[in-house]
């Protein structure tokens, strides 16, 4: 069990315990090669994952495929529970079937809540509740000891909680355990039942080297993001919780990654600013711990310490406050256009709902 030394004193974090979560703010950047935590703000504070939850649904889906329990072309039945999920969704109807591949692409591209539920029920004998327990068990096996899942999609549930550190563990596990499937996280668009759908992980489209992973939003969580990017062969994973908007969240992520690749620190005030909050309580760290690559937790001591150089802090503050990500706002021409090749690219796409429905769960 990790121990966090915060500004207001030591706080014990219970193994897998469910604590009241709110739309707090948190961030973390970890080196994918070494597991070293490069920068963290409130990394062990529990928040709601929103559609980051689908990363675990995808982990269990990939695992089932590689174990032969599911196949990409399998047609899965759509239950009333799945069809009735709030947007965003593929618009599946009760009684129809949908392929595993379309559910995976739906989860990644438009954060389809119905597609996530279909797969979860298929893996758990028809019960989303049973699948949620499977998700939580797998999380704890991966060292995500402060995470509890209650559904397959990330739709609001007050007991569904995680932390920035735990989500970085899941991101690294997806990349490590399913290298042949990780490329799906870079999918920008696909076709479903005659309709074309494009994704909304917009930072990935303009940040050079970024090739995944997942966005999320609910009113209770704020705007969340897990990203991975590679520069000069070095892969970093970043997590942001509680952004006040997708724009400020994306800008903060770009700043965090920029600074980490350049071996600079990021002022924790920027994380609070991106959440529209004053800096009140922070557990922050640089180089004081590791995110375990194996399925076990490590003890990490995190202390408050000002390390941001004044010039870099001012420049980064200006970038977040103005809503721009420096060169990355204009870097679209350098980002690769990524589509799923072959049969995967031409399945079906739907997206029955966008717009205000994103306020429910998943941007």
TrEMBL record:
The active site is at residues 51, 54, 111. GO terms for molecular function: serine-type D-Ala-D-Ala carboxypeptidase activity. Residues 1-23 form the signal peptide. Pfam families: Peptidase_S11 (PF00768). Residues 24-244 form the Peptidase S11 D-alanyl-D-alanine carboxypeptidase A N-terminal domain. Keywords: Carboxypeptidase, Cell shape, Cell wall biogenesis/degradation, Hydrolase, Peptidoglycan synthesis, Protease, Signal. The keyword Protease applies. The keyword Signal applies. One of its GO terms (biological process) is cell wall organization. Substrate binds at residue 214. PANTHER family: D-ALANYL-D-ALANINE CARBOXYPEPTIDASE, TRAFFICKING PROTEIN PARTICLE COMPLEX SUBUNIT 12. Belongs to the peptidase S11 family. This is D-alanyl-D-alanine carboxypeptidase. It comes from Nitrospirillum viridazoti CBAmc. The lineage of its organism: Bacteria, Pseudomonadati, Pseudomonadota, Alphaproteobacteria, Rhodospirillales.
